[in-house]
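Below is how a single chain appears once it has passed through the pipeline. First comes the sequence as given, then the structure the pipeline wrote out for it. We keep one example in the README because the format questions we get most often are answered faster by looking than by reading.
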Amino acid sequence: MKISLRKIKAIIAMKFQTLVSNTSVILAPILALGFVFIMKRIMPDVDVNEAGMNFSTSGFVLSFGLIFNIAIAGISMSSSPLAEEKEKNTLRVLMTSSVNGLEYLIGTLIPPLIILIIVNILMIPVSGASFADLQLGSYFVISTVSSVISLLIGYVVGIFSKNQTQASLIGMPITLILTSVPVLKFLQEDFGQFLNYTYTGVLTNYSNSIFSGDGYQWNVTDSVVLFGWLLVSTIVFVYALV
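Resulting structure:
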């Protein structure tokens, strides 16, 4: 399948304009940074080694901010604009024109992904963490792959939604479940084991581990879960789009 860079650039420009003009969508990443900023200042500083607790304030705040940005902002930035395109029949025009599915996917994915990556990077100093504390390679891979997964989930929601209102209603329980992972893992350790099989669970495990003595260590479970979600979400998106 051949792709045209000219068409992809045109789709990217259109998507950026759509995102910037949609206040409710573009506000989500800003709120993620704002909540992290406030939480860091109202929560007491607790170190992972205090009283034998496997907990760090910076780690908890960072994981909350990442999941808020990736799950809530990511899904809304992909589902809402796509549902809007369906309302205005823009998507039908694109799909019946010379734009193929791969060109549409690349051009649609890049704008919100860039925004999510920038916010994920800004999340580090805002949460009180230091770039020196993080394994930046792992941080970039886990947060970026998770962002792509959320965007793909959002596109699936948008495809099956008739309008933006319906997209918000369908996406709400999904984002609620995904964003509750850090709190549930902290409050319910037994139930938290099941959450390890979600991609937001991998994000939480990473954030909680980076402030421990050994730092985060890649393992088979996290790798399979993360890239398994990526594969499944890609397949579902392609099936829904076709």
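The CA atoms of residues 95 and 101 lie 7 Å apart.

See the next section for the split statistics.
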